UniProtKB/TrEMBL annotation:
It comes from Actinidia rufa. Residues 47-124 form the SBP-type domain. Pfam families: SBP. Residues 114-123 have a biased composition (Basic residues). InterPro entries: SBP-like, SBP_dom, SBP_sf. This is Squamosa promoter binding protein-like 5. It is found in: Nucleus. One of its GO terms (cellular component) is nucleus. The keyword Manganese does not apply. Residues 1-20, 114-143 are annotated as: Disordered. Keywords: DNA-binding, Metal-binding, Nucleus, Transcription, Transcription regulation, Zinc, Zinc-finger. SUPFAM superfamilies: SBT domain.
Length: 165
């Protein structure tokens, strides 16, 4: 029996819908992708729909992002959405719904992800202005010589030979 027929037999017997399954069958290691259905009756081929309660939006013609995260365009931008009986908002950073307490005011990204984003942004700007970056801390105005570099060559007069700004 070859590897292809072993895989087909194994796939025909196994219809459970979870995530990934590592199957070791003697000589071969197969990874099968399995579909996960989280809404509706769990039937194969059920049409994708929004997670928001009482939303009848059909996502079969929606963009891939909205289908993947099971949210319609209306609830994607809504300030308050009821999902699983809780008042929530869709986080654009996490691509999932969070409780309203995890957001600041009307922001669309949760505090946790915004904090990480701001930290990375501050870290990047401090690196570019640090010592040895080759930049002048205060940008010189016209006629200001604070950032001027004088280069004197040996054996030449001590007056200014060459200036780099």
């Amino acid at each position: 029996m070859d590897a292809t027929s072993i895989f087909k037999d194994k796939a025909a017997d196994d219809d459970s819908l979870e995530e990934e399954d590592d199957s070791y069958d003697g000589e071969f290691l197969f990874k099968k992708k399995k579909l996960v259905f989280a809404s509706g009756s769990g039937k194969k081929g059920s049409e994708p729909s929004c997670q928001a309660e009482r939303c009848l939006a059909d996502l079969s013609d929606a963009k891939r992002y909205y289908r993947r995260h099971r949210v319609c365009q209306v609830h994607f931008k809504a300030a308050v959405v009821t999902v699983a009986g809780l008042r929530q908002r869709f986080c654009q950073q996490c691509s999932r719904f969070h409780e309203l307490s995890e957001f600041d005011d009307t922001k669309r990204s949760c505090r946790k992800r915004l904090a990480g984003h701001n930290e990375r942004r501050r870290k990047g700007s401090s690196d570019s202005r640090g010592e040895g970056s080759g930049r002048c801390q205060n940008q010189p105005r016209e006629g200001d010589n604070r950032c001027e570099t004088l280069i004197a060559f040996p054996g030449t007069p001590t007056y200014k030979q060459f200036s780099i700004r």
